Amino acid sequence: MLYIVNKNNDVLVDCIERASNDDVILLVENAIYSAIEAGSSVVFDKNIPVYALEPDMKARGIGRKQSHDFIQYVDYEGFVELVEKNNPVRSYF
């Protein structure tokens, strides 16, 4: 399952609690801030692949160097590929 998350608060924590190792999390919009927040690596310690939409990072002035090492980056084409490869898709908004 692909979880698309756009908030970096309790919604994200709930998503992580529900996700399993077979799932994928994609951070978009304000969830991008989770890529740099202190302690996020503890939250993402379940070995679930985590992606961030790079255009949303750029729009918020966040670069890869500010992000955690476990975050992978995708552009819009990569977003579409994640959707195609990880069905079903669940949005956490």
Question: What does it look like?
Answer:
The protein is of the alpha/beta class and 93 residues long. It has one domain (2-92): DsrEFH-like (Hypothetical Protein Ychn, Chain: A, 3-Layer(aba) Sandwich), CATH 3.40.1260. It contains 4 helices and 5 strands, in the order βαβαβαβαβ. The protein has helices spanning 10-18, 40-43, 54-59, 76-85, and strands spanning 2-5, 24-27, 50-53, 71-74, 89-92. The protein has a 5-stranded parallel beta sheet with strand order 4-3-2-1-5. Strand 1 (2-5), helix 1 (10-18) and strand 2 (24-27) form a beta-alpha-beta unit. It is globular. The mean pLDDT is 85.
Short description:
The chain has four helices and five strands. With 93 residues, it is α/β, with parallel strands linked by helices. It has a five-stranded parallel β-sheet.
| Contiguous helical run count | 4
Residue share in helix: 25-40%
CATH topology: Hypothetical Protein Ychn, Chain: A
CATH superfamily placement: DsrEFH-like
Give Rg in angstroms: 12 Å
Structural category: alpha/beta
Based on the coordinates given, report the CATH architecture: 3-Layer(aba) Sandwich
Distance between the termini: 16 Å
Unreliable residue runs: none
> What is the approximate shape?
globular
Name of the top-level CATH class: Alpha Beta
Provide the succession of SSEs: EHEHEHEHE
| Tally of separate domains | 1
Topology (SSEs and partners):
Elements: E1 2-5, H1 10-18, E2 24-27, H2 40-43, E3 50-53, H3 54-59, E4 71-74, H4 76-85, E5 89-92
Parallel strand pairs: 1-2, 1-5, 2-3, 3-4
